[in-house]
Amino acid sequence: MPKGSPELTEARREEIVDACEKLYQTMSFKEITIKEIGNVTSFTRTSIYNYFQTKEEIFLALLKREYELWIASLKATMEQAETMTRDEFADMLAHSLEARAQLLKILSMNHYDMETGSRPEHLAAFKVVYGESMQTVMAGLDKYFPDMTVSGKQDFIYTFFPFMFGIYPYTYVTEKQRTAMEEANVNYVFMSIYEITCNCVKKLLSV
After folding, report:
1. How far apart are CA 122 and CA 109, in angstroms?
2. Which end of the chain is flanked by fewer CB atoms within 10 Å, N or C?
3. pLDDT at 2
4. How many domains does the chain have?
């Protein structure tokens, strides 16, 4: 790590993550390289290696930030609402993920690559935030559904979080995929992030 104030170090890291995020809007994970990221930062490409050793670490940092934003949104909403019905809780979770399409996109495409291509300390820092996201949703279940059993809450968590990995590819379909499904006579129902998430949460809470 280069010498400098913690503030400068963090600012450099954020600039790199911001650059990756910008490229990810028009390029795929496979297309993005350290060189491409370096081209849209204010310092040299080789300087990136002082902060991240691989592009997987950069994407993992971006995913970590997305989780942090999602957690903050959930907490803010739950602090304002003393009670929620099943439908209101489903609506809250659905809207929160609707606003975090990038979180869902990264989860669906690159999660395994990011974890295997990152150093242990980067992975551990990410897992702390991932764990906090699960704890935040669990806190919502504790607050709004006090009669729900412990096993019921655990079943919700360990069904809903894996479910999140499939939201993006189901709701963002390319024209090529759409045409292929039509030619194959696949009876595919197109749903939005909000619709598929809301339906899932309602079903999980009705069990």
Report:
1. 19
2. N
3. 54
4. 2
pTM: 0.92
Rounded to an integer, what distance in angstroms lies between the CA atom of residue 4 and that of residue 51? 12
DSSP letters spanning the chain = --SS-HHHHHHHHHHHHHHHHHHHTTS-TTT--HHHHHHTSSS-HHHHTTT-SSHHHHHHHHHHHHHHHHHHHHHHHHHH-S---HHHHHHHHHHHHHTTHHHHHHHHHHHHHHHHTS-HHHHHHHHHHHHHHHHHHHHHHHHH-TTS-HHHHHHHHHHHHHHHTTHHHHH---HHHHHHHHHTT-------HHHHHHHHHHHHHH-
pLDDT reported for residue 141: 98
Residues 122, 143: one domain? yes
Tell me which residue has tokens 């806190």: 139
CA distance 35 to 31: 11
Domain that holds residue 201: 62-206
Amino acid 112: pLDDT: 86
57 lies in a domain?
no
Q: Are residues 47 and 106 in the same domain?
A: no
- What CATH number should be reported for the domain holding residue 92? 1.10.357.10
pLDDT digit string (tens) for 32-76?
Answer: 999 999 999 987 788 899 999 999 999 999 999 999 999 999 999
Q: Which residues of the chain have pLDDT under 50?
A: none
